[in-house]
């Protein structure tokens, strides 16, 4: 009975109810939107790589971009025991070179950093989630490039058939690829030897190796790190990219700060609404007490009413944030100093968190008015009628 009474009261005071719900909804939408941004970034980096892959770079380097490995080391690493082989009996291993270039986004004149990755012929076989969706693979020895579709959509001169300038001249874009929402969706891929020639790089940035199984993976890492002839750092590929997810930390912190500030405001709005409700319904509260309802029941009823305001606002706010799901954006990766492109991810867990957050805001805002309603003395109110 009390619950029906609370719901009907919200409908009767639809003006103040709508304003409070709107405030909580906007706060929830911002919360879900910012968290979806961090979630997308963490997904792009956290899901990059394969479980049996080992990434090798120079010891002491922060990332592939700052790593340098002399070319004469490659034959020694490539044929180590424990590396899987393809149908021709060749090791599934790739020597790669990462270079940062500066390109302007569409509609802009100033450029931002973009990663160009030089690949060996075996590289594509080591990335099963990558597929060419338009055009074809580049041919070794030629100034041809394939570009991540997301990158192509955001930057100038990266469309299929376009010419893009970096290094010592122009490169023709002959294909577009998708990499399954991973960090590779932010890269340009070309032939490793042609890229090394353009940038006068006598070495590689990294080696990517596929181990035969999990036991071989550990053995391979230990063997490479214990080798005294070359100071190399070997680690699982997924671990390398997962370490870069800390760039999402500041985004989450900013989101939490905004939500805290806005949440306090929304909580005060809920408190004002419930305060007005308690004052307006003094007679009704006195009548309920006269009918036998206890103080605690009255207090809980108003608390539930306030939480209901928050729940409705949370549901609307989560729904408002849904359209950003899948939208692509980019930010700087402070590990590689290049742009990383990713998509907003509004997950069911995130929406549920938004609902819980909004309900808590509503409940906290209604605590004091509910306490005041429970403490009203019915005799005094009825005497004033």
Search tags:
385 residues; alpha+beta; ten-stranded mixed beta sheet; two-stranded antiparallel ribbon; 13 helices
Give the secondary structure arrangement, pairings included.
Layout: H1 2-12, H2 14-46, E1 53-58, E2 69-70, H3 74-78, E3 93-104, E4 111-119, E5 131-135, E6 144-148, H4 149-154, E7 163-166, E8 169-178, E9 187-191, H5 192-198, E10 203-204, E11 206-210, H6 214-226, E12 232-236, H7 237-243, H8 249-280, H9 282-290, H10 295-321, E13 328-333, E14 338-343, H11 348-365, H12 367-375, H13 378-383
Parallel strand pairs: 4-9, 6-8
Antiparallel strand pairs: 1-11, 1-12, 2-10, 3-4, 3-11, 5-8, 6-9, 7-8, 13-14
Number of strands: 14
SSE class: alpha+beta
Shape: elongated
Order of helices and strands: HHEEHEEEEHEEEHEEHEHHHHEEHHH
């Amino acid at each position: 009975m009390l619950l029906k009474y609370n719901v009907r009261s919200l409908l009767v005071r639809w003006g103040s109810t709508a304003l409070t719900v709107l405030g909580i909804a906007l706060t929830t939408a911002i919360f879900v939107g910012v968290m979806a941004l961090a979630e997308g970034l963490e997904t792009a980096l956290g899901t990059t790589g394969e479980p049996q892959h080992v990434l090798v770079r120079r010891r002491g380097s922060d990332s592939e971009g700052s790593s340098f490995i002399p070319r004469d080391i490659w034959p020694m690493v490539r044929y180590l025991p424990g590396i899987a082989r393809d149908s021709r009996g060749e090791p599934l291993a790739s020597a790669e070179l990462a270079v940062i270039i500066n390109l302007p986004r569409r509609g802009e004149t100033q450029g931002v950093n973009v990663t160009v990755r030089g690949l060996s012929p075996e590289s594509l076989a080591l990335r099963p989630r990558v597929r060419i969706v338009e055009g074809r693979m580049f041919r070794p020895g030629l100034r041809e490039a394939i570009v991540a579709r997301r990158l192509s959509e955001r930057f100038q001169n990266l469309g299929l058939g376009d010419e893009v300038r970096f290094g010592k001249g122009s490169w023709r874009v002959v294909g577009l690829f998708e990499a399954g929402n991973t960090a590779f969706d932010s890269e340009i891929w070309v032939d490793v030897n042609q890229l090394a020639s353009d940038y006068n790089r006598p070495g590689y940035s990294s080696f990517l190796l596929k181990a035969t199984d999990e036991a071989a993976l550990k053995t391979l890492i230990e063997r490479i790190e214990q080798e005294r002839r070359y100071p190399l750092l070997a680690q699982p590929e997924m671990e390398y990219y997962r370490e870069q997810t800390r760039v999402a930390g500041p985004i989450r912190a900013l989101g939490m700060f905004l939500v805290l500030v806005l949440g306090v405001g929304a909580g005060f709005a809920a408190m004002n609404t419930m305060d007005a409700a308690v004052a307006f319904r003094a007679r009704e509260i006195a009548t309920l007490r006269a009918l036998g309802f206890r103080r605690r029941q009255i207090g809980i009823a108003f608390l539930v009413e306030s939480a209901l305001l928050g729940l409705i606002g949370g549901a609307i706010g989560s729904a408002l944030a849904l359209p950003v799901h899948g939208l692509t954006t980019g930010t700087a990766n402070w590990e590689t100093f290049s742009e990383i492109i990713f998509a907003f991810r509004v997950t069911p867990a995130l929406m549920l968190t938004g609902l819980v957050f909004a309900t808590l805001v509503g409940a906290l805002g209604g605590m004091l008015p509910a306490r005041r309603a429970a403490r009203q003395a019915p005799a005094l109110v009825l005497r004033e009628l």
